[in-house]
Amino acid sequence: MRAALIGCGKIAFWHRSALVRAGVDLVATVDRDPQRAALTAAPVPGCRPFTDVAEMLREARPDVVHVLTPPSTHAALAIQAAQAGVHALVEKPVAYSVDEADAMLAAAAEHGTHLIAVHNYLFKPSVLKARRLVAEGAVGDVVHVEAYYGQFGEHQEKGAHWSSDLPGGSFTNYLPHLVYLQEAFLGELRGVSGVSVGTDPATGEQSELTVLVEGANGPGVMTVSKRTQPYAKYVRIFGTRGIVHADLVSEVTAINRARRVPRLISKVLFNLEVMPQFGVGTVVNSARFATKSLPNMPDLHTFVAELYAALDAGQAPPEGARGTDGRKVMQVLEQVWERMPAPAVPPTQAELTPAAARPA
Questions:
Q1: Is residue 56 part of a domain?
Q2: Tens digit of pLDDT for each residue in 140-154?
Q3: Phi, psi angle pair for 282, to nearest 5°
Q4: Has residue 328 got a pLDDT over 50?
Q5: Range of 95's domain?
Q6: Best exposed site among 29, 65, 183, 352 by fewest CB in 10 Å?
Q7: Considering the domain boundaries, does residue 309 fall inside one?
Q8: Which residues, listed in sequence order, are joined to residue 148 by a DSSP beta bridge?
Q9: How far is residue 329's CA from residue 325's CA, in Å, rounded to a whole number?
């Protein structure tokens, strides 16, 4: 399998690492900035830098392109790849709208290629273990899911990153992860029931977004915060016989099981049960990181390896990361955008100046 990267920002280095680790032949990089394209290509023997996508498709002839550019360009690039007979792996969100996602899917179907969504959190070690526990019936019936993403310090200033110009602002750069995780555990998402936005009193900027969704198995809550410290990302799956907590930062998953014991004892067991699970998991993962058997962004590495194994065997991409799954995320995002209040207008300097200090 031959791959190419379109867009050589920070995420391109992780995609390059995942491709190399999976033994995929990275043949080209593309960026409007020739230095970025060359820098990304340099560590990989035989990888050629380009500044033009059409030229790259014609000369490098990849089987798959990784579209790592801002979302406003995703549709045009994925359609261009499909027309060249090339599969398109597209970073989240897969498109700028449901209509764009439909056009991308139609182009892939017409030309016999795959549109693939980078839903890499489905392949995080913590999430994989949580999915296995749920599939085995360890929590009974899933009745509620809580997903949280704290992003303190990332893209705080408006205009500092392309994500601030997305519909929904920089929240949209992170919310897709929580959407597809909700669907993985709640089943098909039927719609958005409510949206609440918090504001940073110091700046007037929208700083928290909480979304209530209705899934086939029950309700779910998703929150993205720009102010929470320390750094936190997790998913909690609540069931009729247990609760699973998957920590997406430490990559440790723990379970509380329902036990037929007196209530006072159950309160004590609640913490005692998870403490050794988190302790052992932390030690094991620390050792794996130290020995490099667990790379940075292990989810992306696992996803890329499974994806290329499937494509090489002539099979469909992994479930949950297909173009149709990306379209489902867009359906939820559009409902969120419709319900979000408009950002507050920042106060002027005159308004911030105390009345007593204003000139007469």
A1: yes
A2: 999 999 999 998 665
A3: -65, -45
A4: yes
A5: 2-117
A6: 352
A7: no
A8: 223, 234
A9: 7
